[in-house]
Amino acid sequence: MLAIEIEKYAVRIGAHFALSLQRTLRIPDDGRRYPLPPGLGAFPLLKVEEYRDSVPQQWLKQGGIFIPMYQREALWLGFRAAAWKPNAVKVLVGDINAITGTKEEYDVFCRTPQNYLVCPPQPWLDGINSGVESVRQFVAMPLGQGYTVEAAISHSEQLGGIQVIVFDAKPGRFPDTPPQPDAAADGRTCRPQASPALGIAAGGSMRQKIYPDPYPQDVWDTDNYGFIFIHIVNSELYREITGLDPPATPIDAKTYSASGLPWFDLYDEELGDVPASEILEEIKSIAEQDKDKGIARAGESITIMDTQIKKLRPEN
Prior knowledge:
Blueprint: E1 4-6, E2 11-13, E3 17-24, E4 33-34, E5 39-42, E6 46-47, H1 57-62, E7 65-68, E8 74-80, E9 87-93, E10 96-97, E11 117-119, E12 124-125, E13 127-131, E14 134-142, H2 149-154, E15 162-169, E16 197-207, E17 220-233, H3 235-242, H4 253-258, E18 263-266, H5 278-281, H6 286-292, E19 309-312
Parallel strand pairs: 4-16, 7-17, 18-19
Antiparallel strand pairs: 1-2, 2-3, 3-5, 3-8, 6-7, 8-12, 8-14, 9-10, 9-11, 9-15, 13-14, 14-16, 15-17, 16-17
């Protein structure tokens, strides 16, 4: 199995892959499709094992890390991998695959439909694969209220959080040493009673492709993988477990955009897009569920000038 090393702001899985969890703006959930929001800094990662006397007992069986998030706060996953020796990566929200919308075990690996990402070229993932060249943003919501993707598909909320599984290629398929110094970058980083544990719900829509696997079918070593469970807790439980204050809430999207600060898009016209999941297309967003519950919220639509949208290459 691939070795896992947990650092303050990143998880390293295997020899060349690293994952970060990036704070970001929550985009409006108004039916429009927005550019990619910026990264506002990585979440601090705390090891479950180091707080074994104060975390929920179930976490000790699952292991991994935990992060603090506020209700309705958004995040995106940043991937760093070697161009000369890529990895295949599965992302589950609760027990639901974020690409296919199917309920899966960690080691299920499927080419058709593709239930994983390939990194690179995939530099990040901001949400569930819910439309043509678009995703619905990962937004934290309490378990037990029915908002999460897990609740919509599994009709229960047993896990919450996020699980990431990283697969290596089979020996000999790619070089063991880089042909030149590895210049991989972190990506867009400049950029009833509620449960204290949080899961992932579907927020607003943004433009993002899930790139098809460019390699032959037999490249990936599906028996050789590393797994990390990411628990998400609200500010109150975070304080109880750690004795620390969580990070302050991020700036809101309207204020950010009105200040003329950048949003992002990719020069990736030459790269394809994995078909949207019919299951995930039917998931109701937080705004739609609020409406069903009779919860009135003010409109959040914002204006983004074309001059604010910064184009990036997938490898940047």
